[in-house]
Specification:
The chain has strands spanning about 10, 20-25, 40-45, 50-60, 75, 80-85, 90-105, 120-130, 145, 155-160, 180-190, 195-200, 210-215. It has about 220 residues and is mainly β. The protein has one domain (about 10-25, about 70-215): Immunoglobulin-like (Sandwich). The strands form four sheets. It has a four-stranded mixed β-sheet with strand order 5-13-12-9, with no helix packed on it. A four-stranded antiparallel β-sheet has the order 6-7-8-11, with no helix packed on it. β6 and β7 form a beta hairpin. The radius of gyration is 20 Å and the shape is globular. It starts with 9 loop residues before the first strand and ends with a strand.
């Protein structure tokens, strides 16, 4: 176990952001992941010979705006998920999340974190957030977690930002349908390990069966 095991300290990065860095063992995702929900509609056409039926399927990838992505959905980087969203005690709505990139950084990027970042490789999860429901979600923010190729957590928890990964919140005009902003979620893995995807695990259902984006 590294020195990260029971550390829970506020660190101040050179960019002025408060950051917390610690490591833990395990970090597996609870629940069973399932494929994105599908909706099926069948139409029957009748001829003098026989009746035939056809079925069309819609997945989370091409779901219309407003359709909620099911817990456990497995997406690729670049695909869009729509989720119910609650922030604080008085902000509720529906947002869309699109993980646009998962980039590997260098340990040197974490210089401002000091010795606590030794042996950690940073990863930058870049996300586009869209207000789908059109409710007042001004100043809200989202978080995602990095996962390895096995779908489990990396064992490293790191928050804050670096020069290469600026954490953004919604602005005051994030109150109408179609409003968007981009942010970067700083995550990490131990040297020798790698981040292969990201997951969203907030809210009912998603806490047990997160939505996952794999690169």
């Amino acid at each position: 176990m590294q020195s990260f095991t029971h550390v829970n300290r506020t660190l101040v990065a050179s960019v002025g952001a408060l950051a917390l860095l610690l490591s833990a063992c395990g970090g597996s995702t609870s629940g069973t992941a399932v494929t994105a929900a599908t909706t099926e509609a069948s139409t029957e056409t009748t001829s003098s010979a026989a009746a035939k039926s056809s079925t069309t399927t819609t997945t989370a990838k091409d779901a219309p705006v407003g359709d909620v992505t099911a817990p456990g959905a497995e997406l690729k980087v670049g695909e869009r998920a729509v989720v119910p969203f609650k922030y604080g005690t008085d902000k509720n709505g529906t947002i869309a999340l699109t993980v646009t990139a998962i980039e590997k950084g260098d340990n040197a990027d974490l210089a401002a974190f000091g010795e606590k970042a030794k042996g950690i490789t940073p990863y930058y999860i870049r996300v586009t957030v869209e207000n789908v429901g059109g409710t007042d979600l001004a100043y809200s923010s989202v978080s995602l977690r990095a996962v390895g190729a096995d779908g489990k957590g990396t064992g490293v928890i790191i928050t804050g930002e670096t020069k290469q990964c600026a954490s953004e919140s919604a602005k005051k005009d994030f109150t109408t349908a179609g409003a968007k902003y981009e942010t970067c979620v700083l995550q990490g893995a131990r040297e020798g390990s790698a981040v292969a995807g990201a997951e969203y695990n907030k809210g009912d259902g998603y806490d047990k069966s997160p939505i996952t984006w794999m690169s």
